[in-house]
Design brief:
alpha/beta; six-stranded mixed beta sheet
Length: about 625
């Protein structure tokens, strides 16, 4: 067990946040941590990471355990380069590498020194265990996977954008490869390709993973268990998010049925006691039931489901059939010297009642497109809205809210004819109640700011909704409610989103944005994936077919006897080298096992011999692999 949390309780200013919470984290656990905003997830993470003490209970951690905790929006900002920060993640490995070099230098002067040989072996074994010989490969894999493949390694971290700094912080944490990896909302700044890469990477991660995420698709892919923090307690469920939803509903039904059954039994027994208490003939039966009632362990009535937000988007007038027409739309951002063309030549028609999702790589210009079609920024080409169109816009940056306004003022400034009762009713449906409406917007969490924006959007009664990452700030319950509301919405929807669960449930058409226009997919996210996969397979098949055609066109019939003999010799040599590689790999494995065996620790003579043989075989293996590569490249 890497971390064991047993019956912990934690309060702040007298308010209980966690009560009698227990959680065990094993060697290769993959745990998704869920809970509504303010449930206590971050408190639990800090307790596990050791940055927060508990009021009662116990927390134990394995000896020499390394915990890596990347908090939400904990962007990396430094004056070091990407390469320097990547190397800093491998600080321990580089220290070992230096120690190995120093030990080898000493052995040059005293090659028979058994103590030095033993020390070299100990350091080498540790270095190999840290995968020290593949540091550059690991760096390339992680940085490429998280979108830094095209970045120069001498790029200074402080010059990156906010989203890039966040992604690089994730990359550096992955390079560190701690025993327990804790990630708080890691998916917010990742596009589809990065999300897919991260999911695959975490599936094979050598250690435990504890991740807080409201990305339900991500949790379905990564998590083997879901832990939900609710009403100060924690419940663990087997499987991913979809399994959790089913299990939780069934668990509550079972608990409610058990409570109801016990209540019926109690009522019958109490009724019997009341009726027969005065009858001497039934005295023994009464006494028995009284004792049963006294000894009975009373079940608690399952608490009702916590309140969730309620959303409903309606409108007063139908727009014309053609809602939006875009022709040769283009957007250029920045000045002449440093700016760039985001996209050009975009053509698009949206018709009444369509629900469309706009996807694409980060930076391609999806959010900018929503602003361009509203004429909020300059653009080329034609944007023409249809008749009777009324547009409602949700900005992921929530730029339309005045941070100095109170919640009531923020809504009232947009709808001055609404009464306070009407505004408070609308906010109440979004769980902004009581004194919360007198808080300034800047004092609210991101989720509650989003709720204010949604309250304004509801009141607008727009028949066309433009939503930019509408699920970003919401917890999983609120996301479910928003998706249900948008599914029922009979108007027109154009939403930018990277939430794959949302994309599976809400849109009926997906537009993938590229610098030269849109690729259209007439279905939801599953359909989009299916078509993308088919296109990738067809592209691969075309490459293989072209390769075969090139081979077929090679003038093999006219090759000389000498050329054919050389080819045969090369193929024979490939087989010989492959056998030699297999033999050397087995020998190296045997040497490592002998060097690591406790019973050989004092046999300095044998250790020195095995160490020399290991070096010789490793050198021979490297040479054999180089020869194999040369031979196979020539054979292609």
């Amino acid at each position: 067990m890497l971390v064991s949390v047993q019956n912990i309780t934690k309060s702040f200013a007298g308010d209980v946040v966690l009560q009698n919470v227990s959680l065990d984290i094993g060697d290769e656990d993959r745990i998704g941590l869920l809970g509504v905003n303010g449930a206590g997830k971050t408190t639990l993470l800090n307790i596990i990471a050791g940055t927060l003490e508990v009021d009662s209970g116990a927390v134990s951690r394995a000896k020499n355990l390394e915990i890596g905790y990347l908090q939400q929006n904990d962007a990396l900002d430094s004056n070091k380069t990407l390469q320097q920060e990547a190397e800093d993640a491998f600080a321990k490995a580089y220290q070992l590498k230096d120690a190995i070099a120093a030990c080898c230098q000493k052995l040059e002067a005293a090659p028979e020194d058994a103590t030095l040989l033993a020390e070299l072996d100990r350091l080498t074994v540790r270095f190999e265990a840290m995968d020290g010989y593949h540091l550059e490969d690991r760096t390339n894999r992680v940085l490429n996977g998280l979108g830094f493949g095209s970045f120069a390694r001498d790029t200074v971290v402080s010059t990156l954008s906010g989203g890039e700094k966040m992604r690089f912080a994730i990359a550096k944490m992955l390079l560190r490869q701690p025993d327990v990896l804790i990630l708080d909302e890691p998916t917010n700044h990742l596009d589809f390709s990065m999300l897919s890469w991260l999911e695959n990477y975490l599936a094979s991660y050598k250690g435990a993973v504890l991740v807080v995420s409201h990305d339900r698709y991500f949790l379905d892919t990564v998590a083997q268990d879901i832990c939900e923090v609710e009403r100060h307690t924690l419940t663990r469920y087997k499987g991913g998010y979809s399994s959790f939803v089913v299990q939780k509903a069934e668990r509550r039904k079972t608990a409610l049925r058990a409570w109801q059954k016990q209540q019926e039994e109690i009522e019958k027994m109490e009724e019997f006691v009341r009726k027969n208490l005065a009858r001497s003939a039934s005295a023994s039966g009464v006494g028995t039931r009284v004792k049963q009632l006294e000894k009975m362990e009373r079940l608690e009535k399952p608490a009702p489901e916590p309140k969730s937000i309620s959303l409903r988007f309606t409108y007063d007038i139908e727009p014309f059939n053609l809602v939006l027409h875009c022709e040769n739309l283009g957007v250029y951002v920045g000045d002449q010297a440093t700016g760039r063309q985001l996209y050009t030549g975009v053509n698009l028609d949206i018709r009444r009642g369509e629900k469309i999702a706009l996807v694409g790589m980060n930076g391609v210009g999806k959010s900018t497109f929503l602003k361009a079609i509203q004429n909020k920024i300059e653009h080329d080409g034609l944007v023409q809205w249809g008749g009777n169109v009324r547009v409602g816009y949700f900005d992921q940056e929530l730029a339309g809210l005045n941070m100095e306004d109170t919640v009531l003022e923020a809504v009232h400034s947009r709808y001055p004819t609404k009464t306070e009762f009407e505004i408070r009713s609308a906010l109440g449906k979004l769980l902004l109640e009581g004194d919360a409406v007198y808080k300034k917007v800047k004092e609210l969490s991101g989720a509650n700011r989003a709720k204010v924006a949604f309250a304004i959007l509801e009141m607008q009664r727009a028949n066309v909704l433009l939503l930019d990452e509408p699920t970003n700030h919401l917890d999983y319950r609120a996301k479910e409610e928003l998706e249900a509301a948008l599914t029922k919405f009979s108007g027109t929807l154009l939403a930018v989103s990277h939430d794959r669960y949302f994309l599976r449930r809400v849109p009926s058409r997906i537009l993938e944005m590229r610098p030269d226009g849109f690729e259209q997919y007439n279905g939801n996210y599953d359909y989009y994936l299916e078509k993308k996969q088919l296109a990738a397979e067809q592209e691969l098949a075309a490459i293989e077919e072209a390769k075969e055609e090139r081979k077929a066109k090679e003038p093999t019939a006219y090759r000389s006897k000498q050329q054919r003999a050389q080819d045969a010799q090369r193929r024979t040599r490939i087989l010989e080298v492959e056998k030699e590689v297999a033999r050397l790999e087995e020998a190296i494995e045997a040497h490592n096992a002998a060097l690591a065996a406790p019973e050989n620790a004092a046999d300095y003579e044998s250790l020195a011999k095995w160490s020399d043989e290991l070096k010789a075989d490793s050198t021979a293996l490297e040479a054999a692999m180089e020869e194999w590569l040369e031979l196979t490249e020539a054979d292609e």
